[in-house]
Write a structure and sequence with these properties.
The protein is an all-alpha fold. It folds into 2 domains: 1-100, Rna Polymerase Sigma Factor, Chain: A (Orthogonal Bundle); 105-173, Winged helix-like DNA-binding domain superfamily/Winged helix DNA-binding domain (Arc Repressor Mutant, subunit A). The chain contains 8 helices and no strands. The protein has helices at 2-34, 41-57, 65-82, 84-93, 110-120, 124-135, 140-147, 151-169. The longest helix has 33 residues, at 2-34.
C-alpha cells in the first residue's frame, strides 16, 4: 500500500510540474485574452488562475488549448455577471468621465502605442478574434470552437479587423 501511495505522489508531482510549465507558457496569452473583459490586470489574473484550477481539477489535457480559452472566456463572463451591481454603482459614481476597458500591452515606443490605440478602437468581436489569431496563434477552427461561432465568421471578423487596422494605421493618400 505504501509503495502505491508513493507512486501516486510521484505521478502527481510530475503532473503538477507539467501544469506549472503549461501555465508559464500559456498564461501571457490567456491574460491578454481575459483582459478584454476585465477592468484590471488583477481581475484577469484571477480569471486565468480559476480557469487553470478548473481545468486541472477536471483533469483535462493541457494540450486542449481551445477548451482552456473557452473556460477563460466563460469564467470572465461569469465574473462580469456576478459583479454587475458593483459595476453599475461604479458607473454611477464616474458618470461624468469616460471609462474604458483596454487590453494590456507592453508599450515601448510611439508606434506600439499607435497600434495599441488602433486595436482598442476595434469592435469587441473583431478584437477578440484578432488577439486569439495573432498573439495566441489559434486556428480559425479553434477560435470558432472557443467563441461558439462558425469558422467563416471567425475568418470574417479577422479580415474586418485587419482591414480596419490598415485603414487606421496607413497614411491616407
Amino acid at each position: 500500500m505504501i509503495i502505491k501511495d508513493r507512486e501516486k505522489v510521484m505521478e502527481n508531482a510530475a503532473t503538477h510540474e507539467n501544469w506549472k510549465v503549461c501555465f508559464s507558457q500559456l498564461a501571457p496569452g490567456l491574460l491578454l485574452f481575459a483582459r478584454q473583459w476585465m477592468r484590471s490586470n488583477a481581475d484577469a489574473e484571477d480569471v486565468v488562475q480559476e480557469a487553470f484550477v478548473r481545468f486541472w481539477r477536471k483533469q483535462h489535457s493541457v494540450d486542449n488549448r481551445a477548451l482552456l480559452y473557452a473556460t477563460v472566456r466563460s469564467i470572465a463572463l461569469d465574473f462580469i455577471r456576478r459583479d454587475s451591481r458593483r459595476a453599475r454603482r461604479e458607473a454611477n459614481a464616474f458618470s461624468g468621465s469616460e471609462q474604458s476597458v483596454e487590453p494590456y500591452f507592453e508599450v515601448d515606443d510611439e508606434s506600439q502605442q499607435v497600434l495599441h490605440d488602433a486595436i482598442d478602437r476595434l469592435p469587441h468581436e473583431q478584437r477578440e478574434v484578432l488577439v486569439m489569431k495573432i498573439w495566441n496563434e489559434f486556428t480559425f477552427a479553434e477560435i470558432a470552437n472557443v467563441l461558439g461561432i462558425s469558422q467563416n465568421t471567425a475568418a470574417s471578423r479577422y479580415r474586418y479587423a485587419l482591414a480596419a487596422l490598415k485603414r487606421n494605421l496607413l497614411p491616407h493618400e
